[in-house]
Amino acid sequence: MTTYRFWCGECGFKTPWGTESEAGRGHTDHYGTRHPGLRLGGQVETGPTVPAREGTSCAVCATTAVLGLLLLVIVAACGR
User: 34 by DSSP, 3-state: which?
Assistant: First the structure.
């Protein structure tokens, strides 16, 4: 599956990786909010999948948090 990320032509904004329509919608919303009245500009970056460090950080953080809490519960239960 191809993923897309749009770069703003006016500033350093980049949309998150996603489908073409998701990224395009983010690009359009950005221009409407930050650069009203200007024509859409910039460039499009494509990739075969979401890069390893983007889009998965929430899942990694949630897993780490759950494991950390589980470890704390085990340590607290053993300390009694």
Answer: helix
